[in-house]
Specification:
- This protein is of the alpha/beta class.
- It has 10 helices and 12 strands.
- It has helices at residues 6-18, 21-28, 32-46, 62-86, 100-117, 130-138, 174-177, 194-206, 219-227, 271-284; strands spanning 51-53, 58-60, 92-98, 121-127, 144-149, 158-163, 165-169, 184-188, 210-215, 233-236, 245-247, 259-265.
- Helix 8 (194-206) links the parallel strand 8 (184-188) and strand 9 (210-215).
- It has 3 domains: 6-85, Arc Repressor Mutant, subunit A, CATH 1.10.10.10; 87-163 and 260-284, 3-Layer(aba) Sandwich (D-Maltodextrin-Binding Protein, domain 2), CATH 3.40.190.10; 165-256, Periplasmic binding protein-like II (D-Maltodextrin-Binding Protein, domain 2, 3-Layer(aba) Sandwich), CATH 3.40.190.
- The chain has a 5-stranded mixed beta sheet with strand order 4-3-5-12-6, with helices on both faces. Strands 10-7-11 form a 3-stranded antiparallel beta sheet.
- The protein starts with 5 loop residues before the first helix and ends with a helix.
- The protein is globular and about 65 Å long.
- The model has no long low-confidence stretch (mean pLDDT 87).
């Protein structure tokens, strides 16, 4: 049996993780037709379809889900071998600050991959609201910090992630919350919070009345309130929990600008923190 082609496997895993061919091509620095051709060759070699593809989506088949699990392990082992054989042993502690919602969805797998290749680096990860993270970063509490910011906002930091923000609520409450004659009940994080500020400004600009009905410092608490039907909240599209409904502009709610995550690095980073920064930029770049 022929072994898997490494370039084809990398194209497949990257496309599955980014969600479509365009973003995968950008991350791999290849043309979209080249990525598509690599995926087709991989399917031909295995004799089974791996995904249902369209210009905007990439939905895995059962065989694709199986290969994705193996592919991630193969690529992780490859990266680990390269690091072991080509780099000096890196050891030390890195202090990382991050928003809670991003840490619980997109960041955990990235950090797990880093610790596999750098087992002697300890990670001290702290979650907080963005404006608090920035203040604590400038006071010297963190080596690296991930922050939410307005697209094309302050030049400080390197953009590593961007995706649309959406209004979301419990599915049984869609009709109730889209009645524009009623105040919109909001479930939000306490001030300061980028999403809170973004939601209120969008509603004010649209002339929609609103009131805060529930404030929670934790993502789990906010989601529990939404699930119970207390109100609507704002989340990145890729962080909407299963079972929640997404409210579009047809529901009478204003559009929201994309969210952007940037990585800020302290001056004079030690080698472990510099390695982690490089890893996060290359892994998250979107």
């Amino acid at each position: 049996m022929r072994p898997l082609d490494f370039d084809q496997l990398l194209a497949f895993v990257t496309t599955a993780e980014t969600g479509n061919l365009s973003r995968a091509a950008q991350r791999l620095r290849l043309s979209q037709p080249t990525v598509s051709m690599q995926l087709k060759k991989l399917e031909d070699a295995l004799g089974c379809p791996l995904a249902e593809r369209s210009p905007r989506s990439f939905r895995l088949t059962g065989e694709g889900e199986t290969l994705l699990a193996y592919g991630r392990r193969i690529l992780a082992l490859s990266e680990e071998a390269v690091v072991k054989l080509t780099e000096a042993q890196v050891a030390g502690q890195v202090r990382l600050g991050t928003p809670e919602d991003f840490a619980t969805t997109h960041l955990s797998a990235v950090l797990a991959a880093f610790t596999r290749t750098h087992p002697h680096v300890g990670l001290e990860v702290t979650t907080d609201l963005t404006l608090n993270l920035i203040d604590r970063f400038h006071s010297g509490e963190f080596d690296l910090v991930l922050i939410k910011r307005e697209p094309m906002g302050p030049s400080e930091g390197v953009r590593v992630w961007r995706e649309p923000l959406v209004w979301t609520c419990a599915p049984d409450d869609v009709r109730h919350f889209t009645d524009t004659s009623r105040e919109l009940p909001l479930v939000v994080s306490p001030h300061p919070c980028v999403y809170r500020k973004r939601a209120m400004k969008a509603l004010d600009d649209a002339g929609r009345q609103w009131r805060v009905v529930y404030t929670s410092t934790s993502l789990a608490g906010a989601q529990a309130a939404v699930r119970a039907g207390l109100g609507v909240t704002v989340l990145p599209s890729g962080m909407v929990p299963p079972g929640f409904a997404v409210l579009d502009r047809k529901a009478g709610l204003p559009a929201l600008a994309d969210t952007e995550i940037a990585l800020m690095s302290a001056a004079g980073l030690a080698e472990p923190a510099r390695k982690l920064a490089q890893h996060m930029v290359s892994s998250l770049e979107r």
